[in-house]
Amino acid sequence: INDSEGHASSSHQTLKGTSKWATSLENLLEDPEGVKRFREFLKKEFSEENVLFWLACEEFKKTQGKKQMQEKAKEIYMTFLSSKASSQVNVEGQSRLSETILETPHPLMFQKLQDQIFNLMKYDSYSRFLKSDIFLNHKKCEEQEENSPEAQTAAKRASRIYNT
After folding, report:
1. What is the pTM (predicted TM-score) of this model?
2. Where does the RGS domain lie (predicted)?
């Protein structure tokens, strides 16, 4: 399907990079490069622990075996939730999550806290990230690459192949 100018319509083009990151925090967190840039931004805002906690919870959900789950649960608790945590996240109800729960871990034991952090990032940090120099400079570099002579000639070749 082509638009009036003969270009492939956008419904067949998949978004990538900064365009995809800008559509949702979920898309940003699915892209390793997006996570890297978001972490870089959060580090400057002194809130990198939020995304690190979120990522640790995602990894925890995939953990197999009770012993491994106990170890990872304790690591998450000690790193992010304990009153002595090195990278403590600011969540409601963290005091109600006592160390005793670490003895009987389950994949979704941190879900409510993870959701709180996700919403904090989504409604606070994420919107600032999209306006940050880190995001805007990365977007600019992507656009320059897309508009480079090499990219254009490849696109024209592809366009000739598919539009004949």
Report:
1. 0.78
2. 24-135
Structure-token pair, residue 152: 């254009």
89 with 80: CB under 8 angstroms? yes
- At residue 4 the predicted structure's pLDDT band, cuts being 50, 70 and 90, is very low
Structure tokens at 127: 């919107």
Structural domain spans, the chain: 19-131
CA-nearest of 101, 93, 64, 94 to 79 is 94
Q: What is the rounded average pLDDT of the residues 94-114? A: 81
CA angle, residues 93, 96, 99, in degrees to nearest 5: 130
Q: Which CATH architecture has domain 19-131?
A: Orthogonal Bundle (1.10)
Q: Count CB atoms within 10 A of the CB of residue 114.
A: 22
| Predicted pLDDT at 128 | 96
pLDDT at 162: 57
What residues form DSSP beta bridges with 8? 2
Q: Which of 24, 30, 18 is nearest to 141 (CA)?
A: 18
